[in-house]
Each structure stands twice: as structure tokens, then as C-alpha cells.
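Assemble and predict.
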Amino acid sequence: MTLPVFERILIDSTSENSEVAVRVRSLYPPEIIFSMDESDPSLNKKGMMTADEFNQSKKTLLLTTFKGQFFKRCPGATQKKALTCCNYHVLNLGSQCNMNCSYCYLQSYLNSRTTKIFTNIDQALAELKEMADQHPDQPFRVGTGEVIDSLSLDTLTLYSRKLIEFINQYPKWTLEFKTKSNHVDQFLDLATAGNTVVSWSINPPYIINSEEHGTARFNERIEAAKKCRAKGFKVAFHIDPMIWHPEWQQNYSFLAEELNREFKPSDVHIISLGTLRFQPEQRHMMRERFGMDSLVTRAEMFASEGNKLRYDATIRAEMFQFMIKKMKSLDPAWNIFLCMETPETWIQAFDKVPMQVPELRSLFKPLPVVRDFQSTN
Amino acid sequence: MDFKTWALEKKLKDSDLLFKKALKTPLQEALLLKLADQLASLNPTFSEGLVTLELMTDLILMGLDEVLFENSASFDLWKASLRRLRYPTTSVRDDDLKVKLEKLPWPYGSKVKFERRGDRAGVELKLFVSSATDLTKILASLERVQEEIGK
């Protein structure tokens, strides 16, 4: 097993006796592990990070407990007026990422100087259980890869194992691990009730090599997905963010053909598409960290509805239409949807909004609202 | 007016110039200062000045230098020329779209102005209507425009 690289590992007093802390102490040399008091000011520095601080936050791991609500709706769903979003829910078991994609939205989202793993997973599971017991027959979809990669640090936490065992009890619910790593061996011995989806954010090799630093390479992700399929896990692919470059059609064609060659539509839960987008304030951090040689910093981006910077709407529609047409020409059974897009773009790409697409209707059907767990704690 | 005076006059703060942190060499910083002095001499507004300085920073980091001074005698021309350098693909697409849209059979007497508004490009159409007959004619023209666009 190759361990994720950290220069320092901090364990706060609330996590000292946690399973994760014990495991981390057994895996890393003691000279890089430090016990900290939870109130230590160095752990609680907040505010906008400089590029150097952001880089450093990837090298310092903090094991701590999370005091807020683990289980929430996906942030896209809070922009319902501007965007057409599916009913996705998130369970955040940490924050920051040990990989380094040039476009990563965490660059404008995080304000903590460490990579965090929350050690109180039992509380997260208790929140999930309460909601799942109330609505066992509703098709909730829960993902753990919003502010941390679901699996890139899983060899340290082994949280995937607890989550799979939990979700097996609620067959109508779906758990999604979203990753750019190839770390799957740690849970492949477990049985699945068919409701755990292991998904890869994927791009053509050219984009992975130039923009997705420190991630598993294209073939490694495909191989990991094949291993999951062989053990009965559903797989999914998020072709997101699609990045425009002069050879985009030929590179995204290659990606479509590879997916079609290696998988059947019945193996793949869903393919989602998204094009490059980021908050305007993120451009400074990206420019400072990656210069202007990156396809992302150099991209021609414009303010869009919802305030994010995006490609010109016509280019986005062209990219979506191209990819949908390509996948459907390879096999009409591919199930494709757009992530965090406006209704106008949906109509340009599909001639429909999602509720009018039979195979997508269930994803977009309104679900009961997640209650505020903190209000009763 | 030099950049220092313009910055004082516009009450510029360091945090307004965050983009400058991406410049890595003294040569790049000196080039931006030279461009900033020229920009200040044209006395742009606070926000136009900042947007242009950021555009210049991007272009310096993209390896451009002398070409950045082309058309620098007029703020509007200079801004347009810098935007073309920073957004080359979109500029070409917008030029093509402008020609295509302006050729359409818009209602007689209407004013058509091509515009980019954020991630969308299109035309702003101004019409004057004084009677129901005017409106009927305009709607008929617009139907022809719709047909042309749909082709």
C-alpha cells in the first residue's frame, strides 16, 4: 500500500483515541505526528488563504472531530433559481484533498490550513440512520466526495467499509464514492447490496496529465473501476470538468470510445457531464499556483448566471451536444446528465429539462428536506 | 498622470491588486508598471482600470510584451485590443456571429447592436411602435428572423 504523503500529522485531543488516530500512528513515523490541544490557535486560523498556505494545507493532516452537521443537500441544490440540479446529498467526512487539480474549487472554498479527517464517523452514521429510518423508501443519493476525495485517503480511515455496511441496510438509498484515485482494494472484500456506486471523475489522458496533478492516471482509474464492477459494485463516471482545448473533440471522442470499450451501459449507473466553471475569486489563487500555462487559467471564461465563470454558453452547448451524440452513437443506452447547469443549457443539449427525460426523472424528483440535526443536539 | 497618482486618486488598496502576486520575475513586474503608467495617463475609472490591469497581468504571464502597447493611445481601442489577445477564440466567434446576426431581416427602422453579456453573445434590439399595424409588421419581420436563425 502506498501511503498518502504528509509532512506533519496533527491529532487533536478529541481524536486522540479514535480508530483513525490509532491506525495513522501505526502507519506513519512518530516524528511527524504531534498531539495538539483542540483550542490551539494554530489549528483554528481561518480566513482567505494565500497560495503558499493552500499548498501547505495539503501537506498537513489534522485528525479532529466535526462539530457541525455531516449530512446536507448538495450546494448546487441551493441555487435552484439559476441551476437545474439533481437531488444529491453530501456527507462530509473531511476537507481538502491530497491531490492537486488546477481547477479544484476547494481553492476558493476552504479556509482551514490543514487537510482534515473527521474522526467522529459514528455521529455521521447516526445522522444518516435517523434520516434513513424516517425515509427508507425514498431514493436518497448520498456522496462523500464534495470537499474531500471519497477514496484518496480511505486507506487511512477505512471509512468506505463502515459506509458500505451501513448503506447495505437501506437498499433504496444510494451511496456514492467519488474519486480521482485508484484506491479501492480496501473494501472490495465486502458484499454490496447493489446500492454503492464507485464513481470516477474522469477526463481524457491529455487533460489528466496536464491539469490533474497527483491523481491516478487514466488507465489506473479504468482498471480500478473494472475491479469494482467485477465485485458487483456499480460504477459511474463524471466527465467533469470538460476542458476546452484545440483538440477537444478528438480527445473527448477517445474518452467516450474507451468507456464504451471497457464498460456496458448496464455496468454504469450514470455518466454526468459538466464543463469548466469556478467562482471568480478563485482565479487569483489558480493564476498564482499554476501560472498561465494551464488550460484552466488560460481558458476564456465569462460571468454566468449564478456568478460563476464559465465558457461561452454556445461553446458549452457544443461540448455537451458533442459528447451526448458521441456516447449515444456508440450505444443509445448510455444514461447521461448535466451537472450544475442552467435550464437553457439543458434544453440546448437535450431539447428537454431533466423532468422530461424518463430515465433521469427519478434523480430530479423532489425529496423530503434534510432536517437540521444541530438544532436538536 | 502616472500609475502611483492614479492609484492614490482612486484610493486603490493592495487587496485590489491580488492578481499581481502571480508575477514571478522583476522583468514581469517592471513591464506591468510600464503598462500601468500608460493606462493611468488615460485616466480610466477605478473598475475599468483594475479589469485592464488584470488583463495585462494575464497577458504578461502568457509571455506577451511589446504587442501589449499596441493601440495604447486610446483607452477603448487599447482595451479592445487587449481583450482580443486574452480571448482570441471568443473574439473570432463573436466577429462571425456579429456579421451573421446583423445580416438578419430585422424590422424596418429598428436599431440592432451586437453585445457580449457575460457568457452569452447576442443583439440588443430597439424598436419603436406607434400602432397595432406597426406591431403586426414587426412581428412578421421577427418571424422571418426566427426562421433564418433556425436554418
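Chain B touches chain A at residues 18-19, 21-22, 24, 57-58, 61-62, 86-90, 93, 116, 118-121 (CB under 8 Å).
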